[in-house]
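Severity: low
Component: inverse-folding endpoint
Summary: output formatting inconsistent between runs
Steps to reproduce: submit the following structure tokens with default settings.
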């Protein structure tokens, strides 16, 4: 994420400010706001409006409410008219009378429908990171940034695109590097790689023809078909030459949305072995899974092939809640 912020925002334009909690970064930013609207390595960007009040109830007072509405109005005007039609406020005690009133004041003033699940305007109210008062966090975009425009075909098991973006960066973004995506599903990792460095050769393999036709549609929408290839096959016995890639990436089945009944233990172990065959000596393998135990066991059985360089625990929204996968970065022994 840091690399992308420096590249797209400019080193002088932003500096980290308060500690914002696990997986979050709070910055002071003096550059053009449009630069924040297409970041790929972050899930969402919020404007933070700080209120020096003891309780959220004070936000209903004329002075604070006017300031809050002005901040929300500013976010709405960043986008073409009519983009924001629905809204959601999240806060501790969001069912309380104060929060209900706050929601209805905002909805009425800005002509928004209140309470929809996939709301365009997303506002959270929480204790300020500065230690006193309350912060209103207003998401700058009508959808999370991880919702990509190229995703014309979705699958329940599709990987969060922000996570995919970070994984391909971990595996190595070198121009011209060849990448294999084992268990590629709808093509998220392939597309994030192809759009980061269009010159790379990228091969995706999946055992499910429906997953591949979904990947095909997404690759088309991302204009990423020219240097990508899809292969129908088993990731444990890929019909691809030995040492033909510089790096591999995989979002292995967790057993929730895909492969609910399969033998995941042997799939993990054999996929790690096959990835070592496909990747050249010194190559990298970035793998994501919620099934840490299975991956640890598979790694132990592939100790002569792969060494763990790093593990990144994540919290990612899934269906109506969260899952906590880890990304593992492995290097060839
Ligand atoms: C978690 S999903 C991958 C999702 C993908 N990253 C995306 O964004 O859509 C796991 C995928 O592994 C595939 N799969 C399961 N067993 C496989 C095997 N033996 N060989 C290749 N693919 C397999 C499934 O068909 C599924 O598409």
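Observed output (run 2 of 3):
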């Amino acid at each position: 994420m840091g690399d992308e912020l420096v590249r797209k925002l400019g080193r002088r334009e932003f500096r980290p400010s308060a500690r914002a909690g696990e997986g979050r970064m709070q910055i002071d930013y003096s550059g053009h706001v449009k630069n924040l609207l297409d970041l790929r390595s972050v899930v969402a960007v919020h404007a933070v409006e700080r209120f020096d009040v003891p309780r959220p109830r004070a936000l209903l007072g004329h002075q604070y409410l006017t300031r809050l509405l002005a901040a929300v109005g500013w976010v709405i005007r960043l986008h073409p008219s009519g983009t924001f039609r629905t809204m959601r406020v999240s806060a501790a005690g969001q069912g309380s009378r104060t929060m209900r009133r706050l929601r209805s004041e905002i909805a009425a003033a800005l002509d928004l429908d209140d309470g929809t699940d996939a709301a365009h305007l997303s506002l959270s109210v929480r204790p300020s990171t500065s230690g006193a008062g309350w912060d209103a966090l207003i998401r700058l975009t009508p959808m999370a940034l991880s919702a990509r425009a190229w995703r014309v075909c979705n699958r329940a098991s599709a990987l969060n695109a922000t996570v995919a973006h970070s994984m391909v960066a971990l595996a190595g973004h070198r121009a011209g590097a060849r990448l294999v995506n084992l268990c590629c599903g709808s093509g998220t990792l392939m597309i994030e790689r192809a759009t980061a460095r269009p010159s790379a050769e990228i091969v995706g393999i999946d055992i499910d023809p429906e997953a591949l036709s979904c990947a095909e549609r997404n690759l088309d929408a991302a204009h990423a078909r020219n240097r990508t290839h899809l292969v129908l096959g088993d990731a444990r016995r890929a019909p691809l030459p030995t040492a033909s890639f510089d790096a591999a990436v995989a979002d292995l089945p967790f057993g929730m949305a895909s492969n609910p009944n399969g033998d995941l233990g042997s799939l993990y172990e054999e996929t790690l072995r096959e990835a070592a065959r496909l990747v050249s000596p010194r190559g990298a393998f970035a793998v994501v899974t919620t099934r840490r135990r299975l991956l640890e066991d598979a790694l132990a059985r592939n100790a002569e092939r792969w060494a763990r360089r790093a593990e990144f625990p994540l919290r990612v929204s899934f269906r109506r809640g969260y899952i906590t996968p880890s990304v593992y970065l492995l290097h060839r022994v």
